[in-house]
Amino acid sequence: MRVLPVGDRALLVELADGEEAGAFHAEVLRRRAAGALPPVTEIVPAARTVLLDGVADPGRLAAELAGWTFGPAGARAEAVVEVPVRYDGPDLPRVAALWGVAEEEVAAIHSAAGFRVAFCGFAPGFGYLTGLPERYAVPRRATPRTSVPAGALGLAGPYTGVYPRSSPGGWQLIGRTELTLWDPGRDPAALLSPGARVRFVPEGP
Amino acid sequence: MTDRVVVVVRAGPLTTVQDLGRPGRAHLGVPRSGALDAPAARWVNRLVGNAEGAAVLETTVGGCAVRPRRAVTVAVGGAPCAVRVDGRPVAWGAPVRVPAGAVLDIGRAVRGVRTYAAFAGGIAVEPVLGSRSTDLLSGLGPPVPADGTELPLGVPAGPPSVTGGVMPWAGPPAELVLRVRPGPRDDWFGPDGLRVLLSGGHRVAAASNRIGMRTEGPVLRRTRSEELPSEGMVLGAVQVPPDGRPVVFLADHPTTGGYPVVAVVDVRALPAAAQAVPGTPVRFVMAR
């Protein structure tokens, strides 16, 4: 673990990899729930870091962090979020070719994985989900689409994501869901928040 | 139908509704947003007797004009400009009574960029995630007002303050001095990165917006070529995109980013950054 100061009110905690970042993030949330974390405005997990922003005395917190021990992320107590998907995205043939499998097999391979929301970004409620085995990582599209519909399920690098609303995007689209990923009028607004466990369930043809 | 409404007569180049934003949700990809010059927004609110966090109008350079359906007390502050009610000059930086049906015209900023107008009772558009701010990056909050947009007003809370306390400032400095702390990724630019940042010669670029204050001038060259995995971004972060021109993140900044942050600007300097017109010299200086 490496703790980097960010201005005079924040710390960027850099972990070895995404797994360890997830475990550290879970530990931060656990300690906050137990009242054992000084007040912070933002806790922002990312690919291999966790940002703690709005800290009154970051130097002191940095010193405390050095003494933390924590285990693997472990499953959060709440139920797994199930996301029904029709695997009929326009990039399905491309992804099948990259994986070296028949198009029909993409759904089975993808939905067999157990996912975790590593972090959110890009747009409100857009989760970067990890869990797909490394060998299925795919590059982004060379030319991003100017408009991707809400509910589109895409792949990029090691991540899986669902577009919460229509936006431009460069991910390889393999399916779509009817679920509402993001609704500012709902509590919580984001269906998928960092740390949540997710399973994709193939729907009929 | 209530007449507690102001109708936008001239929306101007960019006028948005802003309060103090929606911090605390960056982990969901929700930017903080809020008034770029928060001290000015707080001040005009005090002048009309509002809570400091009431929603106000934030204009950009060109001002705007509105017509309240019923008489309302208004205060205009931030970037100095001419203020008129039905063509008659009225005070800037003081509470002004605007009669029902009269046009309040907020003129072009004489100095600075962003002018704030508070209405007694505050602008009462529906809050989104606890804030009435329009976030231009994520699209959260009320739509950007256009000519003809009707904005509801809340019920005035109490008697307007006479003075509003100390005026934050009357305009931007001739040179924008930004105190910075190095990191977290200054090592991506070698020892020369900070030296170039602190060497002077930067200016505010015209492409600046609510997301970031862009700069033109000396270019920072990376000494590391690999991708930086996305990481959390703070207000005031000085992010360096591939063109090497530092961008200072303002209220609508993205919550995560993949370009290295060479330094972080002291947030107390950001209201002045939000008021610096394109071409203003920028001097980054080391904090402490």
Structure characterization notes:
The complex is a heterodimer of chains A (205) and B (288). Chain A has 205 residues and is an alpha+beta fold. Chain A folds into two domains: 2-67, Gyrase A, domain 2 (2-Layer Sandwich), CATH 3.30.1360; 81-202, Cyclophilin, CATH 2.40.100. Chain A has helices spanning 18-33, 58-65, 92-99, 103-112; strands at 2-6, 10-14, 42-45, 49-53, 81-85, 115-120, 127-130, 145-148, 152-156, 159-162, 167-169, 172-176, 197-202. In chain A, the strands form four sheets. In chain A, strands 1-2-4-3 form a four-stranded antiparallel sheet. Chain A has a four-stranded mixed sheet with strand order 5-13-6-7. The termini of chain A are far apart. The mean pLDDT of chain A is 94. In chain B, 8% of the residues lie in helices and 31% in strands. In chain B, the strands form four sheets. A seven-stranded mixed β-barrel of chain B has the order 12-19-16-17-14-13-20. A six-stranded antiparallel sheet of chain B has the order 7-6-9-4-1-11, with no helix packed on it. In chain B, strand 13 and strand 14 form a beta hairpin. The chains are: A alpha+beta (205), B mainly beta (288). Chains A and B meet through strand 1, strand 3 and strand 4 of A and strand 15 and strand 19 of B.
Short description:
Chain A: Pfam families: CT_C_D. Chain A: GO terms for molecular function: ATP binding; hydrolase activity. The complex is a heterodimer of chains A (205) and B (288). Chain A is α+β, with helices and mostly antiparallel strands and 205 residues long.
Into how many domains do the coordinates of chain A divide? 2
Residue share in helices of chain A?
10-25%
What is the beta-strand fraction of chain B? 25-35%
**How many DSSP E strands of chain A?**
13
The outline of chain B comes out as: elongated
The N- to C-terminal Cα distance of chain B equals: 57 Å
Strand content of chain A: 25-35%
Q: Uncertain segments of chain B of ≥5 residues (pLDDT<50)?
A: none
Kindly give the count of domains of chain B: 2
| Structural class determined from secondary elements of chain A | alpha+beta
CATH level-two architecture of the largest domain in chain A: Beta Barrel
Oligomer: heterodimer
Which secondary-structure class do the elements of chain B indicate?
mainly beta
| Largest interface by Cβ-Cβ < 8 Å | A-B, 36 and 32 residues
Number of strands of chain B: 20
Global mean pLDDT of chain A = 94
Largest sheet of chain A: 4 strands, antiparallel
Series of secondary-structure elements of chain A, N-terminal to C-terminal:
EEHEEHEHHEEEEEEEE
